[in-house]
TrEMBL record:
Keywords: DNA-binding. One of its GO terms (molecular function) is DNA binding. It comes from Macleaya cordata (Five-seeded plume-poppy). InterPro entries: NA-bd_OB-fold, SOSS-B. This is Nucleic acid-binding. The lineage of its organism: Eukaryota, Viridiplantae, Streptophyta, Embryophyta, Tracheophyta. The keyword Transit peptide does not apply. GO terms for biological process: double-strand break repair via homologous recombination; mitotic G2/M transition checkpoint; response to ionizing radiation. It comes from the Eukaryota. GO terms for cellular component: chromosome; SOSS complex. PANTHER family: OB FOLD NUCLEIC ACID BINDING PROTEIN-RELATED, SOSS COMPLEX SUBUNIT B HOMOLOG.
Length: 137
């Protein structure tokens, strides 16, 4: 299992990880399917997680989710973690998991690696606060 702080944008379904769902946005329509964005985290980082179709109703805040063969890539100009077509997200527990909310891996600017154009590296943090899930005051 990979920690969220170690995920890197790629067009491959190869991320196996586990996290807790912290917040979930209202579902919206994307084509014929329902979709919603969630904020998830583990003990190393947080990331925006894209829920698709029945996943929007299946998972709730506090659920611990295991993602198998996930993908971390751009979807409509947002860098998100998702199950994709070949991945699988399943609930494996609830409420008891250590987590941190920063850094948010979806809010880091990634650029091509100068030593390997097939890889991306972190350049900078776009914002210290989530633009999609603002801090609760």
């Amino acid at each position: 299992m990979v920690s969220l702080k170690n995920i890197v944008p790629a067009a491959q379904n190869n991320i196996n990880t586990q996290f807790i769902l912290l917040e979930k946005d209202r579902p919206s329509k994307e084509g014929q399917e329902k979709a919603c964005l969630a904020l998830v985290a583990d003990e190393t980082a947080s990331v925006h997680f894209h829920l698709w179709g029945t996943e929007c109703d299946t998972f709730e805040p506090g659920d611990i989710i295991r993602l198998t063969n996930g993908i971390f890539s751009y979807h409509r100009n947002n860098l998100i973690l998702r199950a994709g077509k070949r991945g699988k997200a399943e609930k494996v527990g609830e409420f008891t998991m250590v987590f941190v909310e920063t850094p948010n891996m979806s809010e880091i600017r990634w650029v091509p690696d100068p030593n390997n154009s097939n890889k991306l590296v972190q350049e900078s943090v776009i914002s210290p606060f989530s633009r999609i899930f603002p801090p609760q005051i």
